[in-house]
Amino acid sequence: MSSRGVGSIVPKAHWALHVAKEFAKARLITPRQTLPADTPPTVPDCTILGNVRVPMSDGVRLLADVYLPAGPGVEGPFPTILIRLPYGKTEAYCSMPAHGKYWARRGYACVIQDVRGRFGSEGVYEPFVNEAEDGYETLDWVAAQPWCDGNIGMTGESYYGYVQWAVAPLGHPDLKCIAPGDTAADIYASWVYNDNAFCLSTMGGWAYSVNGKLYHNEFLMDPWHLPLAGMPAAAGHPSKVYSEWMRHPTRDEYWDRVNVCGRYQDIKIPVLHWGGWYDVFLNGTIGGWEGMREQGPEVSRDRQWLMIGATDHELSPESTGRIGRLALERHGYVHDRVKTFMDCWLKGEDDGVTQGGRVMYFTMVRNEWRRTDEWPPREVEYRRYYLHGDGAAGSPDAAGSLSTEAPSYEPADRFTYDPRDPVAYWLGIDIWELARHMGDRRKVERRRDVLVYSTAPLDSDLEVTGPVSVRLSAATSARDTDFTAALVDVHPDGYAHLVQEGIRRARFRESDARESPVEPGAVYAYDIDLWATSYVFRAGHRIRLEVSSSNFDRYDRNLNTGRFAFDDEILPAEQTVHHSAVHPSFLTLPVMPGR
Description:
Elements lengths: L14 H12 L18 E11 L5 E10 L7 E8 L10 H9 L4 E6 L16 H13 L4 E10 L1 H9 L7 E7 L5 H6 E2 L2 E2 L1 H10 L21 H4 L5 H8 L23 E8 L3 H14 L2 H4 L2 E9 L4 H4 L1 E2 L2 E2 L6 H14 L11 E5 L4 E5 L8 E8 L11 E4 L9 E5 L16 H4 L4 H4 L5 E4 L7 E15 L5 E9 L5 E10 L18 E14 L4 E7 L24 E6 L7 E6 L4
Parallel strand pairs: 3-4, 3-5, 5-6, 6-9, 9-10, 10-13, 16-18
Antiparallel strand pairs: 1-2, 2-4, 7-8, 11-12, 13-14, 15-16, 15-25, 17-24, 18-23, 19-22, 19-24, 19-25, 20-21, 20-23
Helix pairs in contact: 3-4
């Protein structure tokens, strides 16, 4: 019996209808008038200087709005927050006026600027390319204004988190700190490719939508289109940056001009790295923290703070109070915690972010904020859960098991991966709001191309805090393929809740900078990074691992040919997953003892 459509939210046949519905929803976004906050305003009002032209040295003028504290007895100059973004300083999507008013009413001047070539700003938009120089010259302009006291901080998430990374190594004397969120200094490995798999639904759609001065309708992109490189053109708007990404699927010199991860040693200011357990750039957030702690100059290594909450890229749990079925309590708001960081470095006030451990993370299920000096916490114990089974892990009965006991001789599990019918749990779903749209995973686990391994019900609570990984001993009949894994919490009623997931492209199993050909039928050890979490599996729940070969359209489909992007040939692959003494496969969990 065919599994087509099982686990797919939007099957291929219904894509045109989905496009129409999503475009209609996108036009109904209502901007926030104010940001929800736990910190009260200290200033009664604000004054807005709209559409101020900021000149660049090449003659291009970038448009900005300036929000200033106002009211009886309020006098400047003020410490200043700079936000630079490509999404429109007055567009509904990011609700920037609400952010400007938030900062102004807490005693800061706030400058919100359209980056070069977007919305009101002049010039041509080239993603990532001009943000260092434009950012530096904007800082010059801000520092020269009579309302600025010379203490400038930058904040914002995603692309407007990246612009902070881009300018920080240049060492502007008035930039005192940055707070990049849900972002990465490594554009290649965190933004565009994850373990060399192309981030199709996120960055593919993004490259299409921002291709010009205003937005294009990214829902016109057909994720099924082949060749992959022709997808934007087929949707009506060829994208230069998308085409460049297709020509550079490995970490090569192309990425050097936009990656900041090689310049940590030049960043000499405090940084608050913030993100969420369900953000698509989580690895980039942690990578920035680790990079600065290990490679940053001595003056800034001890002025790095990491804050990870129970959020996704769009911070949807802050409004829904949920991650799928999981309820959140006592979580709070990111911008309030960023404000306390700014209060410290721009106003010289005591704060609640830099006091205590340098890492602040939210433990899900227990709904607790924790503090530690290191990431992962030094008390973590890494525990292996080995895959076991009699060759029936892909059956409807999900007969595979997980345990801490090492395997002896056990027959391997097998499945067929057909790129024409990939696992498509996320297809048609906004992964930027991953937590909002999470549901029961059982529909995925019923597929015959998904292997399922579960522990017995737990006798007591088990807290997992830190990096999660899978070592898969596997073989394929193809010249190249993918292997995927998902860590799942199985509730007593059977509900399967996603904790974290990852992917490994076979021919890049040894390096993201060079290919290592796969010999069909040969067994290799594939290390799959499931990123990190802080999550409690309750007593009576089961830990589950799903193994497959696709996660569409979060990632592009591997066509199993060993070629990429410019090819439309599709080959099925016969996959074999071993779990024996000679070829063990295992999940590694960072367990917090006594919790």
